[in-house]
Amino acid sequence: MSSNCTSSAPISASKTKTKKKHFIGQKVKLFRASEPILSVLMWGVNHTVNELSNVPVPVMLMPDDFKAYSKIKVDNHLFNKENLPSRFKFKEYCPMVFRNLRERFCIDDQDYQNSLTRSAPLNSDSQGRFGNRFLSSYDHRFVIKTVSSEDIAEMHNILKKYHQFIVECHGNTLLPQFLGMYRLTVDGVETYMVVTRNVFSHRLTVHRKYDLKVGCHYKLHALFSKEAKELPTFKDNDFLNEGQKLQIGDDNKKYFLEKLKRDVEFLATLKIMDYSLLVGIHDVDRAEQEEMDVEGTGEEDEYENDGMGGGVLTGSFGTPPDSPGNPLNCGGFFGPGEFDPSVDVYAIKSHDSAVKKEVYFMAIIDILTHYDAKKKAAHAAKTVKHGAGAEISTVNPEQYSKRFYEFMSNILS
Amino acid sequence: MASASSIASAIASKTKTKKKHFVAQKVKLFRASDPLLSVLMWGVNHSINELSHVQIPIMLMPDDFKAYSKIKVDNHLFNKENMPSHFKFKEYCPLVFRNLRERFGIDDLDFLNSLTRSAPLNSEAQGRSGARFHTSCDKRYVIKTISSEDVAEMHNILKKYHQFIVECHGNTLLPQFLGMYRLTVDGDETYMIVTRNVFSHRLSVYKKYDLKGSTVAREASDKEKAKELPTYKDNDFINDGQKIYIDEENKKMFLEKLRKDVEFLAQLKLMDYSLLVGIHDVERAEQEEVESEDNEAEEEGESDGGGIGTPPDSPSNTLDSTKPLSPGEFDPSIDVYAIKCKESAPRKEVYFMAVIDILQHYDAKKKAAHAAKTVKHGAGAEISTVNPEQYSKRFYDFITTILS
């Protein structure tokens, strides 16, 4: 991408006599994107993280922090028109809370800012329920989901308890890592966005992806998602139909299920249900093959240099030339199927004795459906339909959580 | 990131990520005694940061002289300690002033630091019509509160002013306009303009004159004389037998600049400007420093001459990191208006002289005169019998005579 312009035009008509002695190696960020809303998102995250850097970190969060927001309205005239709309608004909900959450999830604010602003976020192929729009940061570390105002309200309802839960489990959870929540207004249209950590790897390609839920008749219900066009669509429900499992070994299984149990119990106490387990599978051998194919044809397609098994093929995994400069990328080379667990926090290697050498990414997603809201909708519409796979609600959150846990524990070995 | 985070991390969080970025930014709280100053600090910080994301154009376009950036902040239960919850900040012609700062040898980040590291200080100086003054914490810049008419006049002259600066390579005695803003706090709008300080950021001025070259009522009032640093005027200058002892070379250079400047002002039909003169007495300053060192227990004991305090963290300002200066010495790239006295001067002095208050347009004056029969401008009423051309000549002649 071309966002790394240096800051001074070479043929400038000015005479600068002052030597620039400051040692801040900031690149010029132009917030250039294909759509105004993405530019505003980049500008907004850049602005809010900068604002926060001037607000001292408090010893602890106060109740008011969970009701707070920062709002800014920009109105430029004949200025900065190249990359940004002249008029837009940006609102951040509960800035102090999300800063604290980022810290608890070991995400440095500067890194967070860089990931979202150095280069424009990319459209993601995934579609959630209701056709929510997904974006990923250019470096694939974060996912930005467009949500509804009802989702925002629900987030506010659960935020205190969610935060408390994160404190208690020390950030060790399969629940979505909520990192920021915003409202953007461009051309009078309001868009709500929530930023979470990417469940999948920022480097390793995911070859198969499943969205697993508890169906209305206590059946495990898998929604398939198409990968990028280059990959075939998997119609086989391998491990569900044939009883195949994700072979991660006893230790990993135990550790995973402990977290899962805590998480679904928490969700049940909040009367939340209809969440899914998102599963992504990285096939190590296949990735090696894909990489060799690329090298063979000498493709110059956004080739990434940080070791073998690096995501090269699927369209969504290109990284801008400057990403090796991101300090989190300088962690040395990774062998095939290897990952940095502090970055790819959901990654689990397949057991040594497993049939296939794979890396699994598993976490809970879509946790904003509240039972009471569902019942209301059910009464209104007689049947509750939720996107693909209509479901008549015959479970309550407690039952849902129990079934969910049972099913997920069955797919692991 | 915030150094204060170390406190929080000891208690609640478990941060495993090492902060690898090499930006040594301090937390700026924009703390000030007055919400208006907090908003000014915030606004300048925001404006310079925004500009760092806008490519520097090869040359300015006509639209740049009509442009502005506006921002409105509305916070709720957030950041209430140092900032008001609701305020607006508007910057006029951001690209033009960025270009001007560059031409005046001022780096944007240094400009930013000067205005935001610590709150600007109230200045006793009073302009015409009681205009309010502040100086940046490091005394490099002066922030003047102006009227909306002044803002309009600035817009009128900005293109030609910029062109003049281009042609003289920033070498002028005219005010160095560095930024122009409108701040809205509690529904009140305040217009501010930032210029380079005529006086030194280090060397103290013990005597100050505002000279126009006219003789009508050009004397400091008793009220003025009671101030710590009164602004004396033409008659005071003459009656005091004051002289500016500079050598021929300096005098020649100074008058050349002055001539070009007043010709430019006359062309734009501007008048009623003054020459601001400040005198630094080297021996007197040394004496004051000795006295202040004796009192060091109570004060913040800054040792850079002239008893001028600087915030504790200013040594990290890159422009200060040069060798220490001896009494009466200055860095001409910072104190651009400073002129040393000549060898044969009776006292060792440093003079600071520049043109100020250039926004009064002749036509605006005449209109006001017709409305009110006599034209009054703050203290020192003047009946307008001169036009800009005459004013400039009379001004120039007077200044020539005061330089020995």
From TrEMBL, chain A:
The organism sits in which domain of life? Eukaryota
Q: What is its EC number?
A: 2.7.1.149
- State the reactions this protein catalyses: 1,2-dihexadecanoyl-sn-glycero-3-phospho-(1D-myo-inositol-5-phosphate) + ATP = 1,2-dihexadecanoyl-sn-glycero-3-phospho-(1D-myo-inositol-4,5-bisphosphate) + ADP + H(+); a 1,2-diacyl-sn-glycero-3-phospho-(1D-myo-inositol-5-phosphate) + ATP = a 1,2-diacyl-sn-glycero-3-phospho-(1D-myo-inositol-4,5-bisphosphate) + ADP + H(+); 1,2-dihexadecanoyl-sn-glycero-3-phospho-(1D-myo-inositol-5-phosphate) + GTP = 1,2-dihexadecanoyl-sn-glycero-3-phospho-(1D-myo-inositol-4,5-bisphosphate) + GDP + H(+)
Residues forming the PIPK domain are 33-412
What is the predominant subcellular site recorded for this chain?
cytoplasm
Q: Which UniProt keywords apply?
A: ATP-binding, Cytoplasm, Kinase, Lipid metabolism, Nucleotide-binding, Transferase
- Give GO terms: molecular function aspect only: 1-phosphatidylinositol-4-phosphate 5-kinase activity; 1-phosphatidylinositol-5-phosphate 4-kinase activity; ATP binding
User: Which cellular components does GO assign to this protein?
Assistant: cytoplasm; plasma membrane
GO BP terms in the entry: phosphatidylinositol phosphate biosynthetic process
Q: What class of enzyme is it?
A: transferase
Q: Which InterPro entries match?
A: PInositol-4-P-4/5-kinase_C_sf, PInositol-4-P-4/5-kinase_core, PInositol-4-P-5-kinase_N, PInositol-4/5-P-5/4-kinase
Q: Where in the cell is it found?
A: Cytoplasm
For this protein, the record's PANTHER family field holds: PHOSPHATIDYLINOSITOL 5-PHOSPHATE 4-KINASE TYPE-2 BETA, PHOSPHATIDYLINOSITOL-4-PHOSPHATE 5-KINASE
Can you name this protein? 1-phosphatidylinositol-5-phosphate 4-kinase
Source organism per entry reads: Xyrichtys novacula (Pearly razorfish)
UniProtKB/TrEMBL annotation, chain B:
Q: Which keywords does this Swiss-Prot/TrEMBL entry list?
A: ATP-binding, Cell membrane, Cytoplasm, Kinase, Lipid metabolism, Lysosome, Membrane, Nucleotide-binding, Nucleus, Transferase
Task: Please tell me where this protein is predominantly located.
Answer: membrane
Q: Which Gene3D superfamilies match?
A: 2-Layer Sandwich (3.30.810.10), Phosphatidylinositol Phosphate Kinase II Beta (3.30.800.10)
Q: Which GO terms describe its biological process?
A: phosphatidylinositol phosphate biosynthetic process; regulation of autophagy
* Pfam families found in the cross-reference section: PIP5K
Question: Which cellular compartments is it found in?
Answer: Cell membrane; Cytoplasm; Lysosome; Nucleus
**Any one GO molecular function term:** 1-phosphatidylinositol-4-phosphate 5-kinase activity
What GO cellular component is one of the record's annotations?
Answer: lysosome
Query: Any idea of its EC number?
Result: 2.7.1.149
Extent of the signal sequence: none
Q: Where is the composition biased (Acidic residues)?
A: 288-303
What residue spans carry the region label Disordered?
A: 285-328
Q: Where is the composition biased (Polar residues)?
A: 315-324
Q: Which residues form the PIPK domain?
A: 32-403
- Catalytic activity, reaction form: a 1,2-diacyl-sn-glycero-3-phospho-(1D-myo-inositol-5-phosphate) + ATP = a 1,2-diacyl-sn-glycero-3-phospho-(1D-myo-inositol-4,5-bisphosphate) + ADP + H(+); 1,2-dihexadecanoyl-sn-glycero-3-phospho-(1D-myo-inositol-5-phosphate) + GTP = 1,2-dihexadecanoyl-sn-glycero-3-phospho-(1D-myo-inositol-4,5-bisphosphate) + GDP + H(+); 1,2-dihexadecanoyl-sn-glycero-3-phospho-(1D-myo-inositol-5-phosphate) + ATP = 1,2-dihexadecanoyl-sn-glycero-3-phospho-(1D-myo-inositol-4,5-bisphosphate) + ADP + H(+)
Question: What is the name listed in the Swiss-Prot or TrEMBL entry for this protein?
Answer: Phosphatidylinositol 5-phosphate 4-kinase type-2 alpha
> What lineage does the source organism belong to?
Eukaryota, Metazoa, Chordata, Craniata, Vertebrata
